Amino acid sequence: TDWVTLVSLLLPAAAAAMYKQWIPNTNFETTSNWDKGRVPCASDTIHFEKNKVVSVFLESPHVLTDMYLPLNGEFVLASGAGFAAFDGSWDPGCDSGETVRFADAEHHAWFDPRLWQAVSPGGELEPSGRIFSVDEERVPCHYDDVIFQPETSFRVNIDSSQQVINLRSISLMGQELSSPEAWDEYLRGPSAPLQFHGNGTLRVTGTGCPDKSGCACGNAPDGHRICAALLGASGRQCPALVCRSPLQPLGHCCGVCGATINLDFTPDFDLQKFRDRLVQDLLSQPKYAGVQMAISKVHKAQTFLGVIPRSSTSFIQIVLIDDGAGAQTGTTAEQLAADIMEDIAQHGDTLGISSSKMEVATGSTFNSQVGSHALNRITAGMVSGLLFGLLFLGGILFLYRKGKLR
């Protein structure tokens, strides 16, 4: 029974985290939005910076003495909310009469992974399970649904290296906008310019990932923004690791100890089914209780001679980390990776996996490739192709040197 319960707890986390919710808000009643760490009371003087654009949601009625408003902004009032002038009567706990300033919301950036959280379609927080995301995928990917919580106001900087940031849908103020037409209409309204600023453009497509082998997140062009938000803002650095040559997963800002597996796939590969298989058959085993796994399709740029950009290739990346310490760091993840490689060696054909490569970095080993698997026909084809290419180039060079080819 315990094993069945564990699997049932793991499965929701194994499903693709397609719903990502924005965390900060600019609500009037949120204490962290004020420089005094409290909501203004009746005898206070309220200051909004004159040149700061802001949208502020008001949940309840408030009495005030004086308020300085921005030149460009809005109050979004819930039913029954509003402002009334203070009549000078005694208000318990409010006799200081301070100046209370609204905090600057300009620095909240779209590509800051710390400002997003995975949620269920209903908006509930996903349990912190055994599936995690590399840093680029913690920010909404191009086929994700974005949620701004109902009855909240917000302001987000969408500066981007991409001209357009594609999304499946955007929900705000309790309304889901899931078609290009609905989103375009919202952008023409008064609130959108107050909520979104920066050089990027959000576009709602209304479509999810069409490929059963998965879709790359699409945030690689803004990977530097994501890592700067995680590490650069306060001078933080990647944590020091026990393993002597850490792995560097694609889309992740810092190295990790543990194991990575890269899979080449055929048209028969189904990412969701394979993820579920790993969770149910392997990750749920008690001996792997301290292991976390990330799995997704990624793109890697291909270059000629390591310099000239040529194309990009897609593969499935599996990242395994564990809670081991000292010399044991990464060793349990390594064991799970070996089990996955064994499963692929036995069932790769039926799973739609054509080849796989595992790399390991633990507290007791250097980073090394410790295993690989490839179907013989693919390996033979690659060798034959390489030999043919070398013979062809050799023939060209021979004719050129003989003066028979210009």
TrEMBL record:
Transmembrane portions of the chain: 378-400
GO cellular component, as recorded: apical plasma membrane; endocytic vesicle
Pfam families hit by this protein: Amnionless (PF14828)
Gene Ontology biological-process entries: protein transport; receptor-mediated endocytosis
UniProt membrane topology term: Single-pass type I membrane protein
Entry keyword set: Cell membrane, Membrane, Protein transport, Signal, Transmembrane, Transmembrane helix, Transport
InterPro entries cross-referenced by the UniProt entry: AMN (IPR026112)
Entry superkingdom: Eukaryota
Cell location: Cell membrane
Keyword DNA repair appears in the UniProt entry: no
Signal peptide positions (record): 1-16
Name of the molecule in the record: Protein amnionless
Organism: Trogon melanurus (Black-tailed trogon)
Taxonomic placement: Eukaryota, Metazoa, Chordata, Craniata, Vertebrata
